C-alpha cells in the first residue's frame, strides 16, 4: 500500500519521535491502522520504543484503544524471528502493562488474546502494585 511505497521511496528513520517520544508505530497503533503497523515493523521499527512522557509502547496504545488487529500484528510480527521480540509485560507510568490498559478500558477481546496468545502475565503489578 501507500505506507509501504513511502517507506521504500527514500531512506527514513522509522523510529523518529516527536517531542513526547511518540513514533510512527505509536500513532498507527493508537489509531488502529494495522497495515501501517505491519509495514513499519517490516521496515525495522522498534516495537519496544517508549514514549518519553509516560513510557508507553505501541502495544500499550493498541491495547488501550482496543485495536486487536494491531495488538496481533505487534505481537506476531515481533515473535522473535527478526530478533526483536516485543515485551508484552512492559510497564508504563500510568496503566501498567498492556494487559492492564486493555482491562481498564474494557476491551475483552484484547484481554483474552493477550492472555491466551501473547503470554501476558496475569499477575503483573501496575505502578500502584495492583
UniProtKB/TrEMBL annotation:
Question: What are the start and end residues of each ANK repeat?
Answer: 20-52, 94-127
The superkingdom of the source organism is Eukaryota
Cite the entry's keywords alphabetically: ANK repeat, Repeat
Protein name per its UniProtKB record:
Ankyrin repeat protein
Amino acid at each position: 500500500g501507500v505506507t509501504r511505497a513511502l517507506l521504500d521511496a527514500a531512506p527514513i528513520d522509522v523510529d523518529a519521535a516527536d517531542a513526547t517520544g511518540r513514533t510512527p508505530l505509536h500513532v498507527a497503533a493508537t489509531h488502529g491502522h494495522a497495515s501501517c503497523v505491519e509495514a513499519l515493523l517490516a521496515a525495522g521499527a522498534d516495537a519496544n520504543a517508549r514514549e518519553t512522557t509516560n513510557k508507553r509502547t505501541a502495544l500499550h496504545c493498541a491495547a488501550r484503544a482496543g485495536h486487536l488487529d494491531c495488538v496481533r500484528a505487534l505481537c506476531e510480527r515481533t515473535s522473535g524471528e527478526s530478533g526483536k521480540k516485543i515485551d508484552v509485560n512492559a510497564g508504563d507510568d500510568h496503566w501498567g502493562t498492556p494487559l492492564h490498559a486493555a482491562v481498564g478500558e474494557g476491551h475483552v477481546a484484547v484481554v483474552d488474546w493477550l492472555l491466551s496468545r501473547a503470554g501476558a502475565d496475569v499477575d503483573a503489578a501496575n505502578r500502584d502494585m495492583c
